[in-house]
Amino acid sequence: MDRYDLNYHFDENLHEVADNPSDMDLYVHERKSALNTVQNPLERVRILGEIGTYLRILRHLDEARDYLLKAIDVIERHSLDVRLKVSAQIRLAHVYQWQCRFEQSNPLFEELLDLARTSDMEHLNDFIWQHAGKNYFDQMKFSKARECFEKALILREARNAPKDQIESAKSSLQATLQRMN
Fold it and tell me: What is the DSSP letter of 63?
C-alpha cells in the first residue's frame, strides 16, 4: 500500500479537516477497491468503517452514511462483537450530526450514552462521551457539551489514553467554555 497523508486537524467547530484531501481521497478509493476481494466479515467491517470515517472528513456525508450502514449490517448479520457495532454507531451518529440531522444523531447518541453509563465498553466509553459532546456543541447546547467533554476527559485520563485523545478532550472543553462566556 502506498503512503498517504491521512492527517487532519480540527477547525473552530471541532470538525476534522483533512491536511491533504487528495491523498485521503486516493486512499479511500484504494480501500473501496480492496473491499471487492475481502470476504472476512471482521475485515470488511474494519474497511467499511475506515472508508465511512474518511468520507465524512472529506464531507461526502451521504456516501459516508451508506458505508457505515453497510458496516452495521455486516455486524448484525454475522453477530459480531457489540463493541464493533457501538463503534460503527458512533461514526454513523457523527455523520448525522455533520448533516445537521439531529433528529437522527440525538437519539443515537442518547442510546450510546445510556450504554456508556451502564456498560464497560473499555475505550469506547470516552469516545461516546467525546462525540456526544461534539453533537451538542454543533447544536449550541454548550452546557450539555461541557458535561460530555468533562466526562470524556476524566475517562481518558483514568485509562492513560494517548496524548492526542486527552488533548482533543481538553481543547473541545476549552472551545465549549469560550462559547459559553
Answer: H
Please name the residue that has the C-alpha cell 448479520: 77
- What residues contact 157, with CB distance under 8 A and at least 6 apart? 166
Domain membership of residue 1 (yes or no) is no
**What tens digit of pLDDT does each residue of 144-178 get?**
999 999 999 999 999 999 999 999 999 999 999 99
In a domain, 83, yes or no: yes
49 contacts: CB under 8 Å, gap ≥ 6: 67, 68, 71, 87, 88, 91
Sign, CA dihedral 65-68-70-76, equals negative
- Domain with residue 161: its CATH number is 1.25.40.10
The total domain count for the chain is: 1
Evaluate if pTM is beyond 0.90. Answer: yes
Domain coverage including residue 94: 8-180
